[in-house]
Amino acid sequence: MKNILITLLTLLSFSSKSQTLPTYDSLGNVTYYTEDTIKLPFSIAKKITRELVGCDSAKAILDLTKDQLALTEQKVVLKDNIISNYIQKEVLYEQRISNEKEKFNIQGVYVKRLEWDNKKLRIKLTLWKIGFSAGVATAVLGYLYLTK
């Protein structure tokens, strides 16, 4: 694009004659139109060329900036998705922790109940042992008393 503009402006600055361009009307007849050309000084043509090149580069930079902005927006969307996934994971972890705490509390209730049952059974066993020992001792003493 830049080279075409430079060539075009250079040709415009060198040409001073008017040109005739053939065109065709609706009936197919050839008609000629005379177009006037403007002769520009070389310094002005050079300035115009520089401005056109600068404008083209500014447009190219604008396009690159738009592309970069679009990529940055996509990157932000992806990062937002990652953050929302981590937030959901955090909620799930908190639920898991609360479920584990509840499970340990329920297990604690069962452990206390089992400890109480165990204590009752030990007391019963001790009483049975005492009762059995007393019964055996009574039986042995009664046998000895009766046999003596």
From the structure above, extract its key features.
148 residues, mainly alpha, two-stranded antiparallel ribbon, 2 helices
How would you characterize this protein structure?
With 148 residues, the chain is mainly alpha-helical. The protein has one domain (41-147). The chain contains 2 helices and 2 strands. Strand 1 and strand 2 (30-35) form a beta hairpin. The mean pLDDT is 84.
Q: What layout of secondary structure does this protein have?
A:
Blueprint lengths: L1 H13 L4 E6 L5 E6 L6 H106 L1
Antiparallel strand pairs: 1-2
Helix pairs in contact: 1-2
Helix and strand sequence: HEEH
Biggest β-sheet: strands ordered side by side in the sheet: 1-2
Question: How many angstroms separate the termini?
Answer: 138 Å
The description of the largest β-sheet is: 2 strands, antiparallel
Number of extended strands: 2
Number of self-contained structural domains: 1
| Share in helix | over 70%
Determine the oligomeric state from the structure.
single chain
What integer value in Å does the Rg equal?
53 Å
Q: How would you sum up this structure in a few lines?
A:
The chain is mainly alpha-helical.
